[in-house]
Amino acid sequence: MRIVVAAIGRLKQGPERELAERYRKRAADAGRRAGLNAVDIVEIKESRAGDTARRMLEESIAVANLIPERAITVILDARGESSVWMAICKSARKRAGNTRRAVTNASRGTPPK
Q1: Which residue has the higher pLDDT, 42 or 112?
Q2: Domains of the chain and any CATH numbers
Q3: Own/partner pairs, 89-97, CB within 8 angstroms, 24+ separation
Q4: How far is Cα 40 from Cα 21, in angstroms, rounded to an integer?
Q5: SS3 sequence, the chain?
Q6: Which of 18, 22, 39, 48 could cysteine-pair with 27, CB 3.0–4.6 Å?
Q7: What is the pLDDT of residues 62-92, one digit of tens each?
Q8: Are 7 and 106 a contacting pair, CB within 8 Å?
């Protein structure tokens, strides 16, 4: 199993980047005992589109291009509700063995369907 955290934007050098790397390493070390092969952080360049809707669309396409077919995908949205999160977790547990992904777009939310 592999976990990929896809983040829009880049962390600058400094304490936040060091903290993110420390947590990534801790997750990878702890995960090996549970069959986790890798924890990767992928930084995606922010869209330069002029309006928010277009930026959200371009960034969501960039994230979607990272997700392999049949992967279990978890999308976290700053405006989301916890009941949706619980339903996603229950569904993911039923598909043990597939790749799991957690996708978050906290600053702008997810684009409308």
Answers
A1: 42
A2: 2-105 (3.40.1280.10)
A3: 97/1
A4: 10
A5: CEEEEEEECCCCCCHHHHHHHHHHHHHHHHHHCCCCCEEEEEEECCCCCCCHHHHHHHHHHHHHCCCCCCCEEEEEECCCCHHHHHHHHHHHHHCCCCCEEEEEECCCCCCCC
A6: 39
A7: 988 988 888 877 776 666 655 565 666 666 6
A8: no
Instruction: Mark 28-47 as b/e (b = at least 16 C-beta within 10 Å).
Output: eeebeeeebeebeeeebeeb
Q: How far apart are CA 32 and CA 91, in angstroms?
A: 23
Structure tokens at 67: 């997700």
Residues 6 or more apart whose CB falls under 8 angstroms from that of 52 comprise 108
The tokens for 41 are 């952080």
For residue 8 the two structure tokens come to 């829009």
